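Quick one, probably user error.
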C-alpha cells in the first residue's frame, strides 16, 4: 500500500508563482530572478493592490513596466532591457507544474502539448503520466468530453493550434499593408497555380 500523497499547495500570489516558475525552469540564467524582482518592485510601488495573476493587466501593468525600463536614469542598455522583457515574458508565458496539476486541463493535441518543455509537459514529467488532462478541444466540440464541475479553474493549452498562427499572420499582414511595408509577389506557387498568378497574389514581408 503506497502512502497517501499530500495535496499540492498551489502558488497563490505573483511572488510565489514567479518563484515556482524559476524553480521549474531549472535555468542557470540569473536574469529570470532579476526580471521578476524588478517587476514585483515596480508593482509594489505603482500598483500595490495587484498581488494575484488574475489582477494583472497588459496595460497599465506590463506596458507601464516596459516604459519604465526605457526611462531609467542612468539608462539601461538595449541588451539589458531586452533580456529583462524576455525573462518576464517567459515567466508569464508558462504556468508552473503545480498550477497545471491543480487545474482542469483542456488541450488541443495531447501528444503535441507534452513535448518541448511546455507547462503541460513539465507537469507530465513531474508526475509521470498525463492523467491530469481531462480532454481535448475536439472532444468538447464533438460533445464527447464530460462536463467539468462549477469549481476550480480550467486551463486551455493551445500548443500547436494552427489557427493561432493564422491570426498572427493576418495581424502582421494588415499592419504591413497599413504602413506600406512588404513586397507584393504575384504568386508563391506559380508552378502549381499555372497562369492564375495575376489574380492570386501574396505578400512577402520584410
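Nope, works fine. Designed sequence:
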Amino acid at each position: 500500500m503506497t502512502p497517501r500523497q499530500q495535496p499540492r499547495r498551489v502558488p497563490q500570489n505573483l511572488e510565489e508563482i514567479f518563484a515556482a516558475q524559476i524553480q521549474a525552469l531549472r535555468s542557470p540564467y540569473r536574469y529570470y530572478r532579476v526580471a521578476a524582482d524588478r517587476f514585483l518592485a515596480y508593482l509594489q510601488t505603482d500598483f500595490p493592490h495587484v498581488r494575484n495573476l488574475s489582477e494583472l493587466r497588459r496595460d497599465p501593468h506590463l506596458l507601464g513596466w516596459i516604459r519604465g525600463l526605457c526611462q531609467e536614469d542612468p539608462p539601461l542598455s538595449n541588451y539589458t532591457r531586452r533580456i529583462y522583457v524576455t525573462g518576464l515574458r517567459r515567466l508569464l508565458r508558462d504556468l508552473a507544474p503545480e498550477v497545471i496539476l491543480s487545474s482542469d486541463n483542456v488541450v488541443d493535441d495531447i501528444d503535441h502539448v507534452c513535448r518541448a518543455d511546455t507547462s503541460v509537459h513539465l507537469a507530465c514529467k513531474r508526475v509521470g503520466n498525463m492523467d491530469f488532462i481531462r480532454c481535448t478541444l475536439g472532444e468538447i466540440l464533438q460533445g464527447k468530453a464530460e462536463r467539468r464541475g462549477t469549481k476550480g479553474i480550467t486551463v486551455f493549452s493551445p500548443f500547436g493550434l494552427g489557427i493561432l498562427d493564422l491570426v498572427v499572420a493576418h495581424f502582421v499582414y494588415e499592419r504591413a499593408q497599413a504602413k506600406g511595408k512588404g513586397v507584393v509577389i504575384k504568386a508563391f506557387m506559380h508552378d502549381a497555380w499555372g497562369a492564375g498568378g495575376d489574380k492570386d497574389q501574396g505578400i512577402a514581408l520584410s
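Confidence is low (pLDDT under 50) at residues 1-7.
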